[in-house]
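FORM 12-B: Structure-to-Sequence Request
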């Protein structure tokens, strides 16, 4: 064997922090969408949906507004992570990412889940990891020296 074996070195590119955060918010929303989609396949939940009910009782205009707000914020974070200046974007990503981590942790902690819902626990765990990663990436935002 020859000692002059060529090693392939792959070129790495640095991805801007704003773009990293935006991609993380997109990824989080994909997990939210799949979790909600899979939940509709759970027979008891589907029966409730057909009756206009959710786990919290009757579907109301306010419950739909609350759900819309919950999903609108991460949707806006995709844009805001890129459009806002670095200082504000960092702060908002830390706050919103932290709040969403807490929200999903509370949902997991406050309810019990039958085996058919283990997918929900799995996806929620991934969502927590993503929101904590958002906080971490924003927290570690590189400082530009003047």
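FORM 12-B RESPONSE
SEQUENCE OUT:
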């Amino acid at each position: 064997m020859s000692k002059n074996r060529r090693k392939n070195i792959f070129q790495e590119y640095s991805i801007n922090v704003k773009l990293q955060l935006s991609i993380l918010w997109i990824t989080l929303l994909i997990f939210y969408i799949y979790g909600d989609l899979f939940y509709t396949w759970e027979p008891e939940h589907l029966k409730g949906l057909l009756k206009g009910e959710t786990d919290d009782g009757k579907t109301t205009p306010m419950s739909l507004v609350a759900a819309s707000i919950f999903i609108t914020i991460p949707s806006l974070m995709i844009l805001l992570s890129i459009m806002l200046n670095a200082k504000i974007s960092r702060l908002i990503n830390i706050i919103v990412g932290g709040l969403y981590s807490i929200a999903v942790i509370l949902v997991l902690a406050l309810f019990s889940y039958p085996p058919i819902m283990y997918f929900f626990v799995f996806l929620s765990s991934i969502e927590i990891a993503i929101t904590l990663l958002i906080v971490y990436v924003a927290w570690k935002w590189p400082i530009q020296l003047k």
